[in-house]
Specification:
This protein has 72 residues and is mainly α. Helices cover 21% and strands 6% of the residues.
Length: 72
């Protein structure tokens, strides 16, 4: 469990509890968090599984899942 106060989560997460959360865009795999910088998913090859250690809103995990990769 995170040690961050709930108020931080409510403040910084994009949905902020206003209706159901939207699906992550997941248009491309983003290594850096900066749009159009760094390599794309082609660097990964064709993995069957992946572990997302820094999911934030889950964009990369969603991208991989939509590409039939089992993501934890």
């Amino acid at each position: 469990m995170s040690s961050r106060p709930r108020s931080d989560w409510d403040k910084y997460k994009p949905n902020r509890g206003e209706g159901p959360p939207s699906r992550p865009a997941a248009e491309r795999f983003d290594w850096t968090g900066v749009k159009d910088e760094g390599p794309g998913a082609e660097t990964l090859g064709t993995p069957k599984t992946a572990l997302d250690l820094g999911p934030a809103e889950g964009e990369n995990a969603a991208f991989l899942t939509r590409s039939r990769v089992q993501v934890t």
